[in-house]
Amino acid sequence: MEFKLPKLSSNENFGPPVNNKSNRFNEIPFSPYSKFDKITQIADFNLDLKDDQSKQSNKQLKPLQKSIYGSGSATAFGYIHGEDEASFSLVDNKTSAKRTVALGKRQQSRTQPSRPTPTRTNTNQRQQQQQQTQQKQQPRTHRKMGWKDWDKPNRIRDASVQVEPEWQNIAEIDFPRLNKLNLDVNEGEDVESFGQLYPYDRSFDRINTKNEKPLEIKDRTRYNPSTSVDPVIKKLAQQDKAQVFATDCVLSVLMTSARSVYPWDLVVVRKGNQIFLDKREGGPFDFASVNENAADPPMENDKETLNTPASLSFEATYVNHNYTTQVTNEEGKPKPVGESNPFHSGDEPDPLAKNVYKYRKFNLAIDDSEKMDLIVRTELDAYVPNLKKKDPTPTPQITIRALNEFDHKAQGSGGALDWRTKLDSQRGAVVATELKNNSAKLARWAVQSILAGADQMKFGFISRANPRDESKHVIVGVQSYKPKDLASQLHITLSNGFGIVRTIVDLVKNQPEGKYILIKDPNRSIIRLYSVPADFGETDQDAQEKQGDFNAN
Questions:
Q1: What is the Cα–Cα distance from 40 to 551, expressed in whole angstroms?
Q2: How far is Cα 70 from Cα 68, in angstroms, rounded to an integer?
Q3: Are 420 and 211 spatial neighbours (Cβ–Cβ below 8 Å)?
Q4: CA nearest 160: which of 281, 297, 334, 337?
Q5: Residue ranges under compositional bias (Low complexity) (predicted)?
Q6: pLDDT tens profile 200-258
Q7: pTM for this entry
Q8: DSSP conformation class of 134
Q9: Alpha-carbon distance 493 to 185, whole Å?
Q10: CA dihedral sign of residues 102, 108, 113, 117
Q11: Torsion of CA 247, 249, 253, 255, to 10 degrees
Q12: What are the respective helix, strand and coil percentages of the chain, to the nearest 5?
């Protein structure tokens, strides 16, 4: 096969041949064009920008285009859409431009790069100048709360107990209503006392950041049984000494419930005309919270497991137990307050913690014709010995607690100051921050001390020896308070707390005998009262004990 090229006609000008004998292009419109013209286009997303940018250049090219072949003729092949292409817009939910915050004049002057001086520099000097300019332009990482911080997503917390579909919702009370409740109650009276008080070691009052003292690990057995298993409360209930029974840890949470942020729940049991305010074993009442009321509390899903709410709560409880034992002089002269510890069987390998249990009665009646007494189990930790042996004044009985610092730079610290450098010089600011970040915890401790009739409270400031190690701590200071003075600083009134207790008691008293649960909503400022089955919260051992009692009867 032989390949032959087709015959090509040459034309010196643009367009069809001048000598068109075949009539192929007759009656076909033709428009001369130049290389600057656009014949067709599908879609130009940058048309608006190009129009703006080309306005100036068109002014310069307009005189030149008049001399270009075909530039002044109307095009017959240009594609014309029914709608203006300028109306095309890209739909997108995200803003294309970043929002910037206006800076003050003083800060702007700092962030603006300085104008380089017209001097000859070598390559190294130029690189140094560029690095300095970039450092000046970088924004500051440490700043105060900004205008956009309110827009942070709310944290979703899980409830302390899962609400079952068969539970009946009896009542729902929000925190503003709780704050309006009020019931004036007289001073409590002692009913029973158990244990011995040991003296407080006064040398700890002289500790400061310059002569800090390591926190010792002392294993001691400390009992905190629930209301339903307390043998003393069982005996007092059988003797019909009161109509309502509780422990100080349960009662303090209920009386300060309007300050709660973390979820909790307590069990309420009605037997005849008696009501028992109880807790679940292993629930939130057995541990102390950390920075619960901070504006930015510790996060549940923190990558650093050291500073999650659960880890910090366990650490705070551990620190409290060891500090209370360390500052109590176990070699000092004890003061018997009553009978021996009612919960100690002598089988525990660790020594018994030195403290006192007091069962105190409060009258919740509204008028003289009503009988409504409350018996609560309270605790005292030590007594402060008199410096003068012949001092006739009674020795103050105290409660001992510990505030712990984990890392003032970590997330969830609540803007706390560095205790190692600020506690001695700015103790007021440190205490004010703790009152703000731990309002609920300190309120509960103050209520517990008032219910126990304590004369004084001793707070120890405990800090980690290393912020990355939660097992070693040091004592950097001690602060003393009178319980009522601390309650006044926290704006706590016992009348409001007893009003809350009386309201819950009245709600349960109007219901049939059975078991109920009071739950603090995990994400809202509301408490709810539910009716639950009789076997709620019972273990297999409890069921066997009940069956044994039934067979014995």
A1: 99
A2: 6
A3: no
A4: 281
A5: 105-138
A6: 999 999 999 999 999 999 888 888 889 999 999 999 999 999 999 999 999 999 999 99
A7: 0.71
A8: H
A9: 11
A10: positive
A11: 50
A12: 30, 20, 50
Tell me the two tokens of residue 440. 């609920």
Q: Are residues 178 and 376 in contact, defined by beta-carbon separation less than 8 angstroms?
A: no
Q: Which residues contact 468 (CB under 8 A, 6 or more apart)?
A: 306
Q: 280 is written with which tokens?
A: 């679940």
* One-letter amino acid of 124: N
β-strand partners of 398: 382, 456
- 3-state class (DSSP) for residue 245: strand
Distance CA 3, CA 34 (A): 35
- For residue range 284-306, list pLDDT tens digits in order: 778 899 999 998 888 876 566 78
Return the residue matching tokens 């990558």: 303
β-bridge mates for residue 459, sequence order: 401, 479
Q: In the numeric block, which tokens belong to residue 121? A: 């520099």
> What is the DSSP-derived secondary structure letter of residue 364?
-
The Cα-based distances of 465 to 419, 461, 472, 476 in angstroms read 12, 12, 6, 10
Q: Which is nearest to 379 in space by CA: 435, 444, 318, 329?
A: 444
Contact 316, 444 (CB under 8 A): no
Q: Rounded to whole angstroms, how far apart are CA atoms 61 and 64?
A: 5
Distance CA 266, CA 279 (A): 5
Per-residue tokens: 499: 């009003």
